[in-house]
């Protein structure tokens, strides 16, 4: 029996899809997870999502859809977490390729549904920015979610829209989302998280890390992203809600505008017009800036001193937790150093590792 789960925004949504698959359907059902290869600049120095032409070793499922197996490789300089996910998780990761716009993604969905005749189809978004109108000042990454939402509503099949961890992406607040959230489908638990615990040790997704942390009982305020957005870790964090698909489309102005797009460039143009920006433009600008930055050596003593200063300032903001991605950015380190930084911190101060987050203790500690 096959279950199809569409990871609305790619990245961490794909990891959350694997966790939710086991939680809702058990281990006996195989999940096909349709997801973007879009890991942002921490993993992939090339701006925007990767398409089939950016990989070697893909396995054809249908004319428009390929799976990313464990032995696939992103063609340098691009990078992707999908081959490693395929190696560590018992699911098929199908590549969602938005370069032919919403028309192309709709075709991919239709072919997968015809090929697998899945028992169920879920569209999963962690955080809830798939429900954005498009004019919210805190909105950062509407494009990927809008494409999958626009495609899902055009497919002749029953698709259930699920939002996990309302507000955990730091883009829309739980207060904004609460009126549109439907019935509670599941509340994730520590046992659910254990199924993906090894992935959380290396995957860079912040929203899914916070989803897992709240499922494990972590509460407080977590600072995320390069801008240091504060995200509340509350009892709402591990909850998964169903949302009416038509209501979501009626709310999402970008999704409605891009229904007939045939190129990613068209989607970007609509995003600039409706939301005031394209997140891929942001990645282009940041990638150009990072290219000009000299590489910094990871000096343990200096890093721990900087960490003390960062934590002291964070405490004044009421922050209790942060992500390793945010620490990397806050200490002006390169994304390629994130793993080494994480290991240094855990080895040096294991009591502050509140997996998969970093706990900023109430009592200052100086190196």
Description:
- With 367 residues, the protein is of the alpha/beta class.
- It folds into 2 domains: 220 residues, no CATH class; 60 residues.
- Helices cover 40% and strands 18% of the residues.
- The chain has 16 helices and 16 strands.
- The protein has a 7-stranded mixed β-sheet with strand order 7-2-1-8-9-13-10, with helices on both faces.
- Strand 1, helix 1 and strand 2 form a beta-alpha-beta unit.
- Helix 1 runs parallel beside helix 9 and helix 4 crosses helix 5.
- It is globular.
- The model has no long low-confidence stretch (mean pLDDT 94).
Structural Rg? 20 Å
Shape descriptor: globular
The count of helical stretches stands at 16
Strand content: 15-25%
What topology, given as strand order, has the largest sheet?
7-2-1-8-9-13-10
- Strand segment tally: 16
Give the termini separation: 55 Å
């Amino acid at each position: 029996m096959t279950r199809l789960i569409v990871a609305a925004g790619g990245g961490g949504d794909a990891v959350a899809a694997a966790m939710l698959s086991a939680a809702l359907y058990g281990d006996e059902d195989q999940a096909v997870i349709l997801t973007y290869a879009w890991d942002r600049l921490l993993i992939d120095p090339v701006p925007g999502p990767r398409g089939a032409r950016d990989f070697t070793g893909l396995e054809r499922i249908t004319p428009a859809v390929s799976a990313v197996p464990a032995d696939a490789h992103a063609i340098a300089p691009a990078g992707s977490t999908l081959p490693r996910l395929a190696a560590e998780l018992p699911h098929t990761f199908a590549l969602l390729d938005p370069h032919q716009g919403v028309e192309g993604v709709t075709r991919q969905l239709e072919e997968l549904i015809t090929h697998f005749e899945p028992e169920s189809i879920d569209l999963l978004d962690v955080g809830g920015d798939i429900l954005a109108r498009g004019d919210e000042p805190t909105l950062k990454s509407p494009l990927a979610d809008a494409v999958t939402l626009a495609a899902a509503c055009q497919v002749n099949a029953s698709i259930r829209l699920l939002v996990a961890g309302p507000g955990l992406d730091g883009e829309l607040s739980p207060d904004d989302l609460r009126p549109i959230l439907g019935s509670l489908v599941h509340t994730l638990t520590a046992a659910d998280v254990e199924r993906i615990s090894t992935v959380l040790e290396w995957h860079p997704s912040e929203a899914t890390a916070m989803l897992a942390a709240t499922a494990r009982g972590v509460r407080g305020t977590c600072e995320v992203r390069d801008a240091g957005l504060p995200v509340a870790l509350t009892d709402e964090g591990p909850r998964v809600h169903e949302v009416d698909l038509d209501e979501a489309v009626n709310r999402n102005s970008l999704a409605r505008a891009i229904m007939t797009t045939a190129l990613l460039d068209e989607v970007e143009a609509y995003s600039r017009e409706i939301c005031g920006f394209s997140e891929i433009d942001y990645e282009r600008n940041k990638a150009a800036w990072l290219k000009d930055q000299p590489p910094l050596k990871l000096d343990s003593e200096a890093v721990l001193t900087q960490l003390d200063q960062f934590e002291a300032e964070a405490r004044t903001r009421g922050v209790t937790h942060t992500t390793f991605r945010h620490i990397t950015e806050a200490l002006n380190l390169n994304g390629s150093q994130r793993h080494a930084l994480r290991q240094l911190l855990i080895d040096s101060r294991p009591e502050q590792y509140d997996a998969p987050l970093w706990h900023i203790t109430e009592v200052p500690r100086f190196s």
